[in-house]
Write a structure and sequence with these properties.
Blueprint lengths: L5 H4 L2 H13 L8 H13 L3 E4 L6 E7 L5 E7 L26 H18 L4 E8 L7 H7 L2 H4 L4 E9 L6 E2 L3 E5 L2 E8 L3 E2 L9 H12 L1 H6 L6 E10 L5 E2 L2 E10 L2 H21 L3 E6 L9 E3 L1 H15 L4 E2 L5 E4 L2 H7 L2 E9 L19 H15 L3
Parallel strand pairs: 3-4, 3-5, 5-17, 6-15, 7-16
Antiparallel strand pairs: 1-2, 2-4, 6-17, 7-14, 8-12, 8-13, 9-11, 10-12
Helix pairs in contact: 2-4, 4-12, 7-9, 10-12
């Protein structure tokens, strides 16, 4: 069951047009200039007050009604990924090597649709902040907006986010109190040894053999050092070393990520990676230099607060029906920089079903596309949430 207000249903064609325009011209972290321009223009057309420039390309709209002093913030992410799109439909990416493979185009369109409806028909008393955030993908755009004064300039009392999720049926939501998404940290291990001729390995210190041993050892952290009741993952995603067939190099680099749902486990994972890297290096008589999150801050765990989650469930139930809201989903070991906002304000992060992932339509997949059929459902959720949170 979907209970969509007719005026929101009437916005579907506009939301689909905005969504496909953003999909066709994807922009990556802190470069979302055309996307931000489209969003700002659409907000301004409705009379919403618009502020730009936080975290370079961030956009914040302000909509006030009545004399109420309560306020909430609604957030959508804007950035694309460095992925070469393989879809061949008309709105496929025209920017080589860049693609909206995570549905942020749809997130922007749904929040814009809600803003249009609320500006024209909204029945609420207070202030709504519409946050369009850059650089969610590994660049911590939320952290950047916060550090530049997001919540000082736009002092929302609560903050809400939404993300599409393949394999949750279209027309359904999933949300729970507590951890929804894992923490996200990166590591880089630089191994330095003595280069030598491949025919004379005894004259050097082989960093590639050491790297192979270390990669294997890293996979024992979760299975042998972390409580089996605590979900965690350590993944090596890159290894670089050597440049020719007949020489052992003097250096190699290993990069990867680790994720979990508890701060104590997060600290233990970092400590274990550091210890194993140093121990393996010592055993092979080479040097290991370990850096954690060398380019960006690690993402904290995305934790939903109880009161705000209950409010999100009421809003989702109002538009999707009780059978359309899963209130006990399995948390994802994916990560989300909305977690930084939830560290600052109580709030809730909800998943909206994108439908089946058949045909490789998974997040971060070159064949992914956002399901336009759920645009009105997402906008209706935002509207109901605002009217519940800020009653007349």
């Amino acid at each position: 069951m979907m209970n969509i207000i007719p005026e929101i249903q009437a916005l579907h064609a506009d939301m689909r047009r905005w969504r496909r325009q953003v999909h066709q011209y994807p922009e990556t972290a802190f470069e979302e200039t055309a996307t931000a321009r489209l969003i700002a223009e659409q907000l301004q057309q409705t009379g919403i007050e618009v502020h730009q420039g936080l975290a370079k390309t961030g956009v914040v709209g302000i909509l006030r009604r009545g004399s109420g002093t309560n306020s909430i913030a609604l957030r959508a992410d804007m950035d694309a990924l460095f992925i070469q799109e393989q879809n061949r439909f008309e709105h496929a990416s025209r920017h080589n090597g860049k693609m909206h493979a995570c549905g942020h185009d749809g997130h922007c369109a749904m929040l814009l649709g809600a803003a249009h409806y609320l500006a024209s028909h909204g029945r609420f008393n207070g202030t709504v902040y519409f946050i369009f955030q850059p650089a969610e993908e590994c660049r911590a755009g939320a952290h950047q907006m916060i550090s530049e004064g997001l919540f000082e300039q736009f002092p929302a009392q609560r903050v809400f986010g939404m993300h599409n999720f393949p394999d949750i049926p279209a027309g359904h939501f999933a949300v729970k109190t507590g951890p929804m998404m894992a923490s996200f940290d990166c590591f880089e291990i630089n191994l330095s040894g003595q280069a030598t001729h491949a025919a004379m390995p005894h004259l050097g210190n082989d960093v590639l053999v050491a790297a192979a041993h270390l990669i294997t050892q890293l996979q024992t952290i979760v299975s042998r050092q972390i409580d089996p009741a605590d979900a965690a993952v350590v993944s090596v995603t890159q290894i670089h070393g050597g440049s020719t067939w007949n020489a052992l190099p003097d250096s190699a680099v290993i990069r990867g990520t680790f994720r979990c749902f508890k701060n104590s486990v997060r600290a233990q994972l970092e400590q274990s990676i550091n210890y194993l890297a140093q121990s393996v290096a010592h055993g092979f008589r080479i040097h290991a230099d370990i850096r954690f999150n060398p380019e960006n801050p690690g993402y904290p765990v995305t934790v939903n607060s109880p009161i705000e989650t209950a409010s999100a469930i009421r809003a989702a139930t109002a538009v999707a029906g009780a059978s359309g809201v899963d209130t006990a989903p399995t948390p994802s070991l994916g990560a989300e920089d909305f977690a930084f906002m939830l560290q600052q304000k109580p709030g809730c992060y909800i998943w909206i079903g994108n439908g089946s992932s058949e045909g490789s339509c998974l997040l971060h997949n070159p064949n992914y596309d956002f399901n336009d059929g759920i645009l009105t459902l997402g906008a209706a959720y935002w509207v109901r949430l605002v009217e519940n949170e800020l009653p007349e």
